[in-house]
Write a structure and sequence with these properties.
Layout lengths: L4 H8 L2 H24 L24 H7 L4 H21 L2 H4 L2 H13 L4 H11 L2 H10 L6 H19 L3 H33 L5 H55 L4 H19 L1
Length: 287
């Protein structure tokens, strides 16, 4: 069987490759825009406080000018924001309930196993065809078909740990960004204050010290604001996706218990046989 070029491209493209491609594209675009706005060989000037008179409009700045005024540490903070945006998009797609626990597959699989319409080979083929995280856990249980509940549950636990680690992928990245971004902003503030006071000390008794100090403080505080602006969404994303993963794991565990009761040697099927035998014996005695 041969694979066409289009099918090979579709099989090669994953969410991770799309995320990294978008990240590189955004970084390159931001760098090109900054170079174009700054001009060749012209460093970004320090912001100064303009003299305002009554009736003059208040000067405003766009986002790119604010980014340049923040100094060099705005670049790693900006990179953290881009990484956060890309991987929030990736996790939002990967942790969809329909992708992790497809309800039509779970419902059909459990019903057919309980009714005895699937044997071990058919159930395993159905799980391998679906290729969802819950199907992977079901497949581990099916491989222990006919064993005791303890063995089947142990197989589910081992497979569930691997599935859980994949579902929690990149969550540490969100936690790291929420921790690093405020520290980068604080470092930028400290460096900006040091630079401002050094400039005042070098200027001596010349006029404009107050304006220069205010300008340096304004530039220094930009990095703190930028770091907190990135850290808060990162922390929210970490808490949100952690809660979603926990809910998905609990639901997978609940469905897995139904599979255990259906395929284990000491599951619910064997428990029904003595009851049916007692019912037949009582009917015979009554007759």
């Amino acid at each position: 069987m041969t694979i066409s070029g289009v099918e090979w491209i579709r099989a090669s493209i994953t969410y991770r490759s799309l995320a990294w491609g978008a990240l590189l594209l955004i970084v390159a675009s931001c760098f090109a825009a900054d170079v174009w706005a700054q001009g060749p060989g012209q460093p970004a000037p320090l912001p100064t406080l303009p003299s305002l008179t009554e009736g003059d409009p208040i000067p405003t700045k766009n986002l790119l000018q604010v980014f340049r005024d923040g100094g060099l540490l705005m670049y790693p903070i900006g990179l953290c924001s881009i990484i956060l945006m890309v991987f929030v998009f990736e996790r939002a797609i990967s942790l969809r309930r329909g992708r992790v626990i497809p309800r039509p597959f779970v419902k059909r699989f459990i019903e057919q196993v309980k009714d005895g319409r699937l044997d071990q080979d058919q159930a395993l083929a159905l799980c391998e065809e679906n290729q969802s995280p819950v199907a992977e856990v079901f497949a581990a249980a099916v491989k222990k078909w006919g064993r005791s509940c303890v063995e089947v549950e142990q197989a589910i636990l081992d497979s569930g740990e691997r599935v859980t680690s994949r579902l929690r992928q990149y969550l540490r990245l969100f936690n790291g960004i929420s921790t690093i971004s405020p520290l980068l902003g604080l470092l930028g503030t400290v460096l900006g204050m040091i630079s401002a006071f050094n400039a005042i000390a070098a200027q001596g008794e010349a006029a404009g010290q107050r304006e220069l100090l205010a300008s340096g403080i304004s530039q220094a505080l930009l990095t703190t604001a930028a770091g907190l602006t990135v850290a808060l969404p990162a922390l929210i994303a970490y808490l949100f996706f952690s809660g979603r993963v926990d809910r998905l794991i609990l639901e997978i565990d609940a469905h897995s218990q139904d599979v255990v009761n259906a395929i284990a040697s000491d599951g619910w099927k064997d428990k029904r046989k003595p009851a049916s035998r007692r019912a037949s014996r009582s009917t015979a005695k009554a007759a």
